[in-house]
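Sat 14:20. Reprocessing the chain from the morning session after the first attempt stalled halfway. Input below, unchanged.
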Amino acid sequence: MESVKNGDLPEDVVLEILLRLPVKTLLQLKCVCKRWYALIGSSSFVNQHFSQESNQEHLLIRHYRPDEERYAFALYVDEIFSGYEEPDHLQMPLTVAALMGPLNGVFCVVSISGHMALLNPAMRQFKPLPLVHPYVHPHLSSYDDLLGFGLDPSSGDYKLVSIQYFWNEEMDVPHYPSLVSVYNSVVIPGDTLRMWICEKFQEIQVPDCIKSKEGDLALYDGSIALLSCDLDKIDKCVDVWVMKKEGFWTKILTVGPFQDIKWPLGFWKNSEVLLETGTSLLTLYNVYTQKLRTVEARRKENGFFIYWVFSYKESLVSLKGEGNKCKLWDTSSDLVKDFFK
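Finished this time. Tokens:
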């Protein structure tokens, strides 16, 4: 290591070698010398490493293990899904109510008690979020809430949107006011997580022809996409709409019809639509070959099972903030256990 430190290898060669290494190894190499510590933690290196071809995107799903009667997160090792691993740092407690993302390798985690945190499992970093509790009139009672997790690609700014719906008990007719909070964090890859604040937002109208159908949002080729499906029909088709310009939706394709589809889940590398079947199997439909293939055969035998499906890449994005308040991601620690109670 001393010879490398003294510059026997050209800088560009050292950089190319480091960029091809996994996050876990790079975290160990940051301790070799100050120069490597600064290089691996720099914004430019974090961005290059995330985009490096060797840092491949993997399919991550939560599935059910009937032999052990538990849920587990499976990370598929290649694009043909020939096998999978269940890495310890990607496992979540059963009391996870929602897992959103990942965005540049960072997830937003919500516990059943309503606690929220940012998580970069590759960095083993876990950061609980201090959420604002705005005043609500006493005659309004909460009955539902929605959450969204996003990233501004131009600034690296993570955003968490909370929409709370209320029942107005003072009115004779149904009235459902809502309270929307947008939490903003200025996070640039390689930088730190700073204070969360509230800001304004605006609604986006969906195409009129799908308002009577079920649907879900996803990302397709860098744009917002909407997958809609009429679940009441026996032969179900999935329409894919893309908004490449604000307020303007274009239907780019229709897949199906299918007789055994419960819900469209999203996309895999823009060429395949992820679907959950009526028998709770994970299936991919290739939009070019128009063929189906089943990925996951482990399913819950009793009751409904809804897949959690993610496209995951490791990331060096740090969640450390002022005072180094980021926590270690370890599901056996008391802090994490208390968070997920």
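The CA atoms of residues 166 and 177 lie 6 Å apart.
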